[in-house]
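Extended Data, record AH receptor-interacting protein
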Amino acid sequence: PQHVVLYPLVSKSLRNIAAGKDPLEGQRHCCSIAQLHEHYSLGYPDLDELQKNPQPLIFDIEVLKVEAPGSYQQDPWAMTDEEKLQAVPLIHKEGNELYRQGKVQEAAAKYYDAIACLKNLQMKEQPGSPDWIELDQKITPLLLNYCQCKLQCEEYYEVLDHCSSILNKYEDNVKAYFKRGKAHAAVWNVAEAQADFAKVLALDPSLRPVVSKELRSLEARLREKDAEDKVRFKGIFSQ
């Protein structure tokens, strides 16, 4: 019989990867035997059973696709630090191309992968150190691109969170103020949107035409909303 006592943990990691999760989710840094004793369940009945009763396995492998030499791209979690750094410009370029094609969700996923590579490297540096800052300055434009995708996907609160995190570090980032202003406007945070757009103009007066268009759009939506509210609540207070 083959020794398969470690296979359940390997299989759980592979299933996490297939689901887009961290392959080491739920594991801590200890030996494999300690992992087995620490976890009552791996989250999959078949793996729990195999863990209790190891037995010989036969693997049936199905070929899903054949890729041309040089076309395969590793997932970020599987890359070395150097591979992550080299991959970021390529992933960024792929994201830009997908965005130009109108494939916004796919572009967002690419930007996310590039950010994940840099974040992983940044975690190994002392916060505020020159290397940490250099990585952060590479993350910021990718995060702004990601926010642009999320604006188009109407995921406004995520945009608010990410842009605010950028502005907490870089108070003069015009693009972050502009995208956050658009997100505030979309969720009816009128005063906050106006404040962000005012900051955009203070930092870059040449953007006045673009900002004026956003403010006019916000005012038009407010008038429309007021009219709808009057119809909706008509007669409530006269009864």
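Summary. The chain has ten helices and no strands.
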